[in-house]
Amino acid sequence: MLKRIVIGSLALANMLVGASPAFAYDPPLEVYFTYYYSDASHSTGVGHSHFEYCTFNGRTNGAVYSVVGSSSIYHDDNLIGYCEDGNFGPA
């Protein structure tokens, strides 16, 4: 009987830890190369964002970018890869 209670308690603890936000899995972060344009016609480029490197703080994936030229609300995003656990993987 005691063995059954211990096994049941371990199963419950494992289920609760797996559902805890502290142990939630952060999916890979999409990384883009972005072109910026002067207006909605997308005929004149004014800059682009350049991917630098991936980050990971133990729970959350991130990416660092630099902007060359100017940024704008008019842009095209091109998927180039993914950041996962601080590592870059191509698309």
Question: How would you characterize this protein structure?
Answer:
With 91 residues, the chain is an alpha+beta fold. The chain is 20% helix and 49% strand. The protein has a five-stranded antiparallel β-sheet, with no helix packed on it. Strand 2 (45-56) and strand 3 form a beta hairpin. It has one helix at 2-19; strands spanning 29-37, 45-56, 61-69, 74-84, 87-90.
Summarize the SSE layout with pairings.
Elements: H1 2-19, E1 29-37, E2 45-56, E3 61-69, E4 74-84, E5 87-90
Q: How many helices?
A: 1
Spatial separation of the terminal alpha carbons: 53 Å
Net shape: elongated
Number of strands: 5
> Largest sheet, if any?
5 strands, antiparallel
Question: What is the structure about, briefly put?
Answer:
With 91 residues, the chain is α+β, with helices and mostly antiparallel strands.
Key terms for this structure?
five-stranded antiparallel sheet; alpha+beta; 49% strand; 1 helix; elongated; 91 residues; single chain
